[in-house]
Amino acid sequence: MQIDILIKIAGLGLLVSVITNLLKQSGREELSALVVVVGLAIGTLLMLETVSSLVETIRRVFSLY
Amino acid sequence: MDMVQVLGVGVVGTLLAITLARINGTHSLLVGLATGCLLLVMLLGQAEELTGFLRELAGEGSLPAAYTGRVVRVLGLACLTEAGSRICRDGGQGNIALKVELCGRAMILCAMLPALRELLEATGTMLRELSG
């Protein structure tokens, strides 16, 4: 199902925010910033396939390049 | 394109993005981007038939195939530009969105440059014939 990528990214976002809050409360601000960056990278990697399929389809349909 | 599927993806994506917006803004933007990409991929499966029909129609008429090719290409460029700039604007970066739109416009103009040149040449010859 295509929709599972949305749920994956949303779950990742929730997880990242929970971990960030926990780390902040335990006084590790620098680690929480790192977690945010890593979460963003993983989310972008998850999306990469969808975005590339979109760009490929647009190229094929509209005969760009 | 199954309309129920489109509806499902759109509504679920919106709900997830709204829920995440307060907790984690960046991931909410990512969810929005993924939803938009999924919907556009669904749409373009259908658009392929449409552009094929457009080419067929132009082939039957007297319109040169190069012109329809250019029009379809500009359509694709406009679609990509709009998608990109809306994503940037959703993230609150109107400045970047404006630049993306500007680049898209410039690229569309570049894609239509041969047609523009032909139009100007035709206008020039017409004016010369009228005055001379």
Describe this structure in words.
- The complex is a heterodimer of chains A (65) and B (132).
- Chain A has 65 residues and is mainly α.
- Helices cover 86% and strands 0% of the residues of chain A.
- Chain B is mostly helical and 132 residues long.
- Helices cover 91% and strands 0% of the residues of chain B.
- Chain B has 5 helices and no strands.
- In chain B, helix 1 (3-23) runs antiparallel to helix 2 (25-60).
- The N and C termini of chain B lie far apart (58 Å).
- Chain A binds chain B through residues 2-3, 5-7, 9-10, 12-14, 16-17, 36, 39-40, 43-44, 46-47, 50-51, 53-55, 57-64, and chain B through 5, 8-9, 12-13, 16, 19-20, 23-24, 26-28, 30-31, 33-35, 37-38, 40-41, 44-45, 47-48, 51, 69, 72-73, 75-77, 79-80.
Order of secondary-structure elements of chain A = HH
Q: Could you list the spans of chain A in which at least 5 consecutive residues all have pLDDT below 50?
A: none
E-strand count of chain A: 0
Question: What composes the largest sheet of chain B?
Answer: none
Q: How large is the radius of gyration of chain B? A: 21 Å
